[in-house]
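Researcher: Next entry in the queue.
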Amino acid sequence: MRNRSHRSRAVLAFAAAALLGVAGCDATGGNSAAPKGTTANVRPSPTPAWDRSPESVAAVGDSITRGFDACTVLSDCPEASWATGSDKKVNSLAVRLLGTAGAAERSWNYAVTGARMADLPGQMAQAVTEKPELVAVMAGANDACRASVSAMTSAAEFQADFEDALGTLRATLPKTQVYVSSVPDLKRLWSEGRTNPVGKQIWKLGICPSMLGDAESLDAAATLRRDTVQDRVEAYNRVLEEVCAKDKYCRFDGGAVFDYRFGTDQLSHWDWFHPSKNGQAQLAEMAYHVVTSKEPVA
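Model: Structure for this entry, 298 residues:
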């Protein structure tokens, strides 16, 4: 989740057994023959069942999915990724679904540190080459974490890019399932870290300035700036939910990641922004709950 313009400066942070269509009644009622030109016992097409145990997983997104700053300073740590990592402390989505050996053989991580939603179609194009049965998506934080609120990605652009990414997937893999994480609560990030002397000093190096800049200030301008960022994140999450709802093989997390009440234990103590291994484990648990639930999350 590093702001691209500060990458060099950042230092140390749910089958849905989907409802089958109700059987259509015989047009003439009872057991009488159907009129000529009609087909007896016509049934509407059933909603496709959600496979709660896909056999391969690809991940796309940003630095969170790369495990950035979860293991070492200023470095990706894909082994600690919530989506595809091998670290036992994380117990990633792929490991939970496929087992350790299966995850090593049939999971792929195409996320890129610093990526925004505009980068997702390209990542999806890479992911489809592996023909995964599930694609895990987490993106959007970098669209809100900009040098200023005016530089944030608009909700309309965000939607167009997300629809483009899903279109890229569907052009090749029309039945691959998609898990979509909500964008994390950046304002909670500020509220949890702003009283930490180390975290505040690190944020000054340019980590998510639109939200975390001038962390100690509670004046009207700073409050408006943070509220504007928060409103944009909430708009992004509405986009993710609405677009995903139009795709019968897509499940949004229902806002689980955004609503998660994380604390400092879930943050990297190198940058007080990215998830620690504990935070990555929580993300993996939420994703696994959505993917393996009998019903879609509300």
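Model: The beta strands are 57-61, 107-109, 134-138, 177-180, 250-252.
Researcher: Noted, moving on.
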